[in-house]
Each structure stands twice: as C-alpha cells, then as structure tokens.
Specification:
alpha+beta, DUF397 domain-containing protein
C-alpha cells in the first residue's frame, strides 16, 4: 500500500537533510514515515488520532 501512496514532506522542511517526516493518505488512514529512511516502514493512524497529534505538536505538548 505505501508503495503506491503519494507521500508528502512539509514545505517547512526545506532542502536540508534534517529530521523530517512524510505523510500520506492510505485509504482512510494516515501514514507517517521517516523521510530519510522510507523503506523502514511507517506508522498508521486514524484521521482523528493524526489530528490529535498535530494539535499537541502545535500547542507544544509532549505526547503521552
């Protein structure tokens, strides 16, 4: 499934080889993977969990 997915990296990542992740819509779930090692696999989250993660990151909370 992840081979045919359209993985996107944030435009804020720039061209540096820093700590970047990519996301993709995987038929109703959200995939997250390391952009430096895309063949290592990915995490799969529900859209609700993904939005919760984004909200925590935006508010600078630590994930529990």
């Amino acid at each position: 499934m992840s081979e045919s997915a359209h993985w996107r990296k944030s435009t804020r990542s720039g061209t540096q080889q820093g700590n970047c992740v990519e996301v993709a819509n995987l038929n109703g779930t959200i995939g997250i993977r390391d952009s430096k090692n895309p063949n290592a696999g990915h995490l799969t989250l529900t859209p609700n969990t993904f939005h919760t993660l984004l909200n925590r990151i935006r508010s600078d909370e630590k994930a529990r």
